[in-house]
Amino acid sequence: MAQEKFITLDISGIEPEEGAPAPERLISGNPQFRTWNIEERDGALYAGIWESTPGKWRISYDEWEFCHILSGVSVISEEDGEARRVQAGDSFILRPGFKGVWEVLETTRKHYVIRL
Question: What is the mean pLDDT of residues 40-46?
Answer without folding.
Answer: 94
